[in-house]
Specification:
single chain, alpha+beta, seven-stranded antiparallel beta sheet, 2 helices, 7 strands
Length: 119
């Protein structure tokens, strides 16, 4: 069975244990490796630096068990400049932004992006 390269892998047990499951989520790439992301408010994106960024549309209420739809994937460099590509329209009511801050440098961010994008 073939699975999509990009998919959510749930929240960390520790985040669920303290009631913060909605703020942290693992996303897995084509390799199967999981990356920990933090939910960030869209109006704070201009303040972020050195992060991998995902913008997704969460499933609506009727499809709550479905996978989120990736609409933008990219990175933010040390100067706060976003680089990436749009993957579709963004309906604002169910849009979530997720940032991964644990990549050590630009090369690591690029590797994570490639894994998440399935390339």
């Amino acid at each position: 069975m073939c699975r999509p390269a990009f998919m959510t892998a749930g929240s960390p047990d520790s985040a669920r244990a303290i009631g913060l499951a909605d703020r942290f989520r693992y996303w897995s790439g084509a390799s199967g490796r999981r990356y920990l992301f933090s939910s960030v408010a869209a109006d704070t994106l201009d303040d972020l630096a050195e992060a991998v960024l995902l913008i997704v549309v969460e499933p609506d209420g009727e499809a709550a068990h479905g996978e989120p739809r990736l609409v933008w994937i990219g990175s933010i460099d040390r100067d706060g400049v976003r680089q990436g590509r749009s993957l579709g329209p963004i309906p604002h009511e169910r849009t979530r932004c997720w940032a991964h801050f644990l990549a050590r440098d630009e090369e690591a961010r690029a590797a994570i992006l490639a894994d998440l994008a399935g390339s």
